[in-house]
């Protein structure tokens, strides 16, 4: 919940509308720090501390921290084609055509695990390309 709150207040900073959450004129951030009585901030403050003044300070501290939160940010997805995945398998593992024929299970699991961690590669795609069942790919 507080990650979303920070995302909302830091969004103007990320989009360069303001240099800080506090400097954004149209942000509800001011409701929490200056109490303008439009919203009820008490429920949010209780997430930071039981004593109101300490909670306000902790709120301000948390909102100003640099972070790598992933919340509602748009992340462009790029899916690799079957041909791209086959070329990657051949280049990295020396397996032609992507098929895992006559390969020991342990070795296959290691390769599948690495491939699953590759952005743009899906489980169904790996099952299709390698000849392994979807279940085997998921469990690797």
In short:
By secondary structure, this protein is mainly alpha-helical. It has helices at residues 2-14, 29-34, 42-45, 52-64, 82-93, 105-116, 123-130, 134-139.
List key phrases describing it.
53% helix, 2 domains, mainly alpha, 8 helices, 140 residues, single chain
Tell me the series of helices and strands, N- to C-terminal: HHHHHHHH
Characterize the main sheet.
none
Computed Rg: 24 Å
Can you count the helices?
Answer: 8
Query: Residue-averaged pLDDT, rounded?
Result: 86
Kindly state the number of beta strands: 0
Shape: elongated
**What is the beta-strand fraction?**
under 5%
Number of domains: 2
Distance between the termini: 33 Å
Helix content: 40-55%
Q: Assign the structural class, choosing from mainly alpha, mainly beta, alpha/beta, alpha+beta, or little secondary structure.
A: mainly alpha
Q: Spans with pLDDT under 50 lasting ≥5 residues?
A: none
